[in-house]
Design a protein that fits this description.
single chain, 136 residues, mainly beta, Metal Binding Protein, Guanine Nucleotide Exchange Factor, Chain A
């Protein structure tokens, strides 16, 4: 089984993900755009049993961005690390930008393009969904 490592920018929070990184989506919603300071967030839903914290210096913070939805980030460097939603307690949504660059992941779609920034230009042939798209 493949194991991929990830961390925040300063390295205070480190983790691993075991197994394949599947169904990666680029989310263009207002929350992801603002929470990542970019046009979109690259997210991968991972079963909680495949996610392990390997280093935590106590800097992890969270913010409830939507009712029942929490975004977890490093309180020192501000890096978004993962998200959790109460309606899906079996999964963690890992932010792919925190993973080692050799991580093998295939992007399958752009989601919430109905709320993307005007300046954001999607220049690939991946499927686009006005909202969340088909279930993962």
């Amino acid at each position: 089984m493949t194991v991929v490592t990830g961390q925040c920018l300063c390295g205070a929070f480190r983790f691993t993900v075991e197994g394949p990184l599947e169904n990666v989506r680029l989310c263009h919603c207002d929350f992801c755009r603002r929470g990542n300071g970019s046009a979109y967030s690259a997210n991968c839903k991972v079963p909680v049993e495949r996610f392990a914290v390997v280093g935590d210096e106590g800097t992890l913070r969270s913010f409830e961005s939507t009712p029942g939805g929490r975004r977890h980030f490093c309180g020192t460097c501000g890096s978004p690390v993962f998200a959790r939603v109460d309606s899906d307690p079996e999964h963690i949504r890992v932010r792919l930008g925190t993973l080692e660059r050799e991580a093998a992941a295939e992007i399958v779609a752009h989601v919430w393009v109905g709320s993307k920034a005007r300046w954001d230009r999607i220049a690939d042939g991946l499927p686009r969904y006005e909202q969340s798209g088909p279930s993962a």
